[in-house]
Design a protein that fits this description.
heterodimer, A: 313 residues, alpha/beta, Rossmann fold, 2 domains, four-stranded antiparallel β-sheet, 24% strand, B: 394 residues, Butyryl-CoA Dehydrogenase, subunit A, domain 3, three-stranded antiparallel β-sheet, 15 helices, 3 strands, 73% helix, flat
C-alpha cells in the first residue's frame, strides 16, 4: 500500500529521518513509535507530502507520490492530528464534509455520509450536526476529527498522536472505536504514538524509530519477546513487562477446551491481562469463556497464564 | 461596603446633578437680533411654559429619580426610555420655543442652542448609554435605541418644528451647498476606502506571511500616523503640484480632492494592514495544519478558513479606519477638497457658531452611525460561531 525506499529528510544539519525503508501492507494497522525527536511524525507527514523527502522514494498504491499533486494525494488520505484542528467557524457537519465538498460530492450524498459517520463515532446526529466546535468536549472534538478524516472513504488513514491529549477513559473509548472501524472498513492505518500500551493494543505491526532510524519492525508479540536492543527494551519498559506480555494475547488463545463451569462467562476476544484482573477481582483461578456469539468456549486457568510460551527480556 | 448604598447608581447621580444644574443655572437658548451679535440668554423655565412643554418634566423626573432606584431591569429600561425621550423632547422644545420667539421678531433674529441645552442633551444621552450598558444590551439593541432617538428628532425636523432654530436657518440659506458638501464628504471617505482596501488587505496578508515585509511596512505606517493631518496635506501639495505641471490635463492638482484622498488613504492603511495581519495571526496553527492535511490549496485555505476567522478583527480595523476618515475628511476642506469641513471653516472664519454646527453635527452623526453599524456587523460575524473566543479584537 505504502512503500518507503531509502528515504532521508534533513532539517538544516539535523537528520530527522535517516535512510528508512518500510512497507505498509494493504489493510494493515501500523503503529510508528519512538521518543520525541525520533522522526516518527516526520515519516508520517511525508506520506501525504506535508514534508518532502530529500532522497529516496515513497510509493502509494504503486505510484510515486512525487508525481502527484499534493492536494489530490491528501484528499485520498484521512489525516488526524493531536491538536484536532477543527474549523471553528464551521458546524460539525460542515467540518466533517470538508473533503467531500472539496471533491465535489452531491449534497445529498454528503449529508448521508455525515449522518453515517456521526453514528459510527457515537455522536447523536440530531444533537451534534449543527453544533460548533467550541461547544464540544475534547473527546467529542477528536471524534469529529476522526469522522472528518474518514469522510471521503480514504484507503489510508494517517493519525499523528490523535489521542495523546485526551483523558485515559476517553482515550480508551476512542481506541476501541478506532479498532472497530479498522476491523470493519479494512482501511490501512498508520498511527504515530509515544505510548507503548497504545501501540500494543492497536497495532498489527509496530515500527520503532530512534534518532531518525528504523530500529525494529515487528508484531507486538515479537516486540515484547524479542526486542532488538535497549531502545526497544526501554520503550517497552521493564516494570510491568508481564502484564504487557499478557495484553498482546487473547483469552481464546490460552483457554482449555473443557466443559464450561459456573460463573459469568468472560469474552474470548479480550486480552489476557484483563482476564487476570478479573480473576483477582473474583478471587478465583478459573474463568468460564464464551465466544463472540455468546457460546461456551472452554475455561481459562490461572496456571496457563504464567506458563505460556514466554521469553522474558 | 456592606450596608446597602444610599445611592445605588453614582454615575446616574452625577448626570442627574449636571441635568439639574444646567436646567437652572445655564441658558437653554440664546436669542439675538442677528447672527453676528451674541444672544440674550433664555432659561429652560421660559421654554417649558409652552403648551405641552411640561411634558418634558416627565422623563426629566425619571432621570432625576434613577440614581436612587434599585437597578432592576425595569428601572434601567425606564432610564433608557427617559434618556431617549428627554433628548428628543429637548430638541423639540428648543424648536417650539424658537418658533414662538421668531413670531414677534425680525427675520434676521436668531435663536440658537445655549450651553444649558448642550449639557442637558449630553447628560440625557449619557444616562441612556449608562443604563443600556448596565442592562447588558447587545450591539443590535443599542443601535435600535440610537436609531429611535435619531428617528424622533428626524420626525421633528421633517415636520418643520425646528425650522426657526438658527442652525436650520443657516441650512435654509445653504440648502444646495449643504447637500453638495454632505455628498462630497461621503465620496471622499469612500474614494479613500477603495484604494485602502485594494492596497491594505494584500499588504496585511503579506506582512503576516513574511516577517521581513512586516518589519518594513509597520514602522513606515506607524510614522505616517504620527504626522498631523494638516502637515500631511501640506506635504502632498508640493509634489502633486509638480506632478500636475508635468502631466497637465489629467485632473491632478496640489489642492482639491486628489491630495485629500491620497492623505486619507495613507492614514487609513495602518488600521487595515495591522488588523488584517493580526486577524490572520489569530488563526490557530492546528487549524491551518489540518486544512493543509485535508488537501485544501493555499488559496482555499486563505479564502475558506483564514479569511472568515480573521474577519471580526479585520472589521474592527475597518471601523477605526472609517471613523477616522470621516473626521479627517473634515480637515481636508482646508486644501479645497470640499465636504462638510468647508461649512465648518466658513463658520469659523465668519465667527458664525451655528454655521460651524451645521458642518460639525453631521460629521459627528456620520461617525457615530458608521461606528454603530460596524459594531453590529462585528457582533453578527462573531455571534453564532463563538469565534474568536475570549480574545478582544484590538
Amino acid at each position: 500500500m505504502i512503500a518507503f525506499e531509502r528515504v532521508t529528510k534533513r532539517f538544516g544539519s539535523w537528520t530527522a529521518v535517516n535512510d528508512v525503508s518500510l512497507t505498509v501492507g494493504e489493510g494493515e494497522f501500523l503503529v510508528l513509535i519512538g521518543s520525541s525527536g525520533s522522526g516518527k511524525s516526520t515519516l508520517l507527514r511525508m506520506m501525504n507530502r506535508l514534508i518532502v523527502p530529500e532522497s529516496g522514494s515513497i510509493r502509494v498504491e504503486g505510484t510515486d507520490i512525487a508525481a502527484l499533486r499534493p492536494e489530490e494525494l491528501r484528499r485520498r488520505m484521512g489525516y488526524v492530528i493531536q491538536s484536532v484542528g477543527l474549523f471553528p467557524h464551521w458546524t460539525v457537519e460542515r467540518n466533517i464534509a470538508t473533503v467531500p465538498v472539496l471533491l465535489g460530492w452531491p449534497k445529498a450524498r454528503v449529508r448521508d455520509r455525515v449522518t453515517e459517520l456521526l453514528e459510527l463515532l457515537n455522536l447523536d446526529p440530531r444533537r451534534f450536526r449543527s453544533a460548533y466546535p467550541h461547544q464540544l468536549s475534547g473527546g467529542q472534538q477528536q471524534r469529529v476529527g476522526v469522522a472528518r478524516a474518514l469522510a471521503a472513504e480514504p484507503r489510508v488513514l494517517l493519525m499523528d498522536e490523535p489521542f495523546s491529549a485526551l483523558d485515559p477513559i476517553t482515550r480508551g473509548a476512542l481506541q476501541g472505536e478506532l479498532a472497530a472501524i479498522h476491523r470493519d472498513t479494512g482501511t490501512t492505518v498508520v498511527f504515530v504514538t509515544h505510548d507503548m500500551d497504545e501501540a500494543l493494543t492497536l497495532a498489527d505491526r509496530i515500527a520503532v524509530m530512534d534518532h531518525g532510524r528504523l530500529v525494529q519492525t515487528a508484531t507486538p508479540l515479537e516486540i515484547l519477546t524479542h526486542p532488538a536492543g535497549d531502545v526497544v527494551r526501554d520503550l517497552v519498559g521493564r516494570e510491568d513487562w508481564g502484564l504487557k506480555r499478557l495484553s498482546v494475547e487473547t483469552v481464546g488463545q490460552r483457554a482449555r477446551p473443557e466443559p464450561t463451569i459456573p460463573g459469568a462467562p468472560f469474552p474470548s476476544a479480550a486480552p489476557l491481562h484483563r482476564a487476570l484482573s478479573e480473576m483477582v477481582a473474583r478471587g478465583t483461578d478459573r474463568l468460564p469463556v464464551m465466544d463472540e456469539g455468546g457460546r461456551p468456549a472452554g475455561v481459562l486457568h490461572l496456571a496457563d497464564l504464567v506458563r505460556g510460551p514466554a521469553t522474558s527480556p | 461596603m456592606t450596608a446597602p448604598a444610599l445611592v445605588p447608581n453614582r454615575v446616574a447621580l452625577l448626570l442627574a446633578l449636571f441635568l439639574l444644574g444646567a436646567a437652572f443655572a445655564l441658558p437653554f437658548l440664546g436669542f439675538a437680533p442677528n447672527r453676528l451679535l451674541s444672544g440674550k440668554p433664555i432659561p429652560l423655565a421660559a421654554a417649558l411654559a409652552a403648551p405641552w412643554g411640561w411634558a418634558l418634566l416627565l422623563p426629566g423626573a425619571v432621570l432625576l429619580a434613577a440614581p436612587f432606584l434599585r437597578p432592576s431591569r425595569a428601572a434601567l429600561a425606564a432610564s433608557v426610555a427617559a434618556g431617549a425621550l428627554f433628548a428628543a423632547g429637548l430638541v423639540g422644545l428648543a424648536g417650539e420655543h424658537a418658533a414662538r420667539l421668531a413670531a414677534d421678531a425680525s427675520p434676521a433674529a436668531r435663536a440658537s442652542f445655549g450651553s444649558g441645552f448642550w449639557v442637558m442633551l449630553a447628560a440625557a444621552l449619557l444616562a441612556m448609554a449608562d443604563a443600556m450598558r448596565r442592562l447588558g444590551l447587545g450591539a443590535a439593541a443599542r443601535l435600535a435605541v440610537g436609531a429611535a432617538v435619531a428617528g424622533l428628532i428626524a420626525l421633528e425636523l421633517v415636520a418643520g418644528r425646528l425650522d426657526q432654530l438658527s442652525i436650520l436657518k443657516e441650512y435654509a440659506n445653504r440648502r444646495d451647498v449643504f447637500a453638495d458638501a454632505l455628498l462630497r464628504h461621503g465620496v471622499l471617505v469612500l474614494a479613500a476606502l477603495l484604494p485602502t482596501l485594494l492596497v491594505g488587505v494584500p499588504l496585511g496578508v503579506l506582512a503576516q506571511r513574511s516577517a521581513r515585509v512586516g518589519r518594513l511596512v509597520f514602522p513606515v505606517l506607524n510614522i505616517v500616523q504620527t504626522i498631523p493631518s494638516i502637515a500631511l496635506f501640506g506635504l502632498l501639495m508640493a509634489p502633486l503640484a509638480a506632478l500636475a505641471a508635468l502631466l497637465p490635463g489629467y485632473g491632478i492638482s496640489g489642492v482639491g480632492p486628489v491630495p485629500a484622498v491620497i492623505a486619507l488613504t495613507v492614514y487609513s492603511l495602518l488600521p487595515i494592514v495591522r488588523n488584517t495581519a493580526v486577524g490572520l495571526d489569530g488563526v490557530p496553527d492546528s487549524v491551518r495544519q489540518a486544512a493543509r492535511g485535508m488537501g485544501m490549496t493555499p488559496r482555499q485555505i486563505l479564502l475558506r478558513v483564514e479569511a472568515p476567522l480573521a474577519l471580526p478583527v479585520f472589521l474592527s480595523g475597518l471601523r477605526i479606519t472609517l471613523v477616522q476618515a470621516v473626521g479627517l475628511a473634515a480637515v481636508a476642506a482646508l486644501i479645497g477638497a470640499g465636504g462638510l469641513g468647508s461649512i465648518m471653516f466658513q463658520g469659523l472664519f465668519a465667527n458664525a457658531l451655528d454655521l460651524v454646527l451645521l458642518g460639525a453635527v453631521p460629521v459627528i452623526l456620520f461617525a457615530v452611525a458608521t461606528d454603530a453599524l460596524l459594531t453590529v456587523a462585528i457582533a453578527l460575524a462573531t455571534r453564532s460561531t463563538g469565534w474568536p473566543t475570549g480574545r478582544s479584537a484590538v
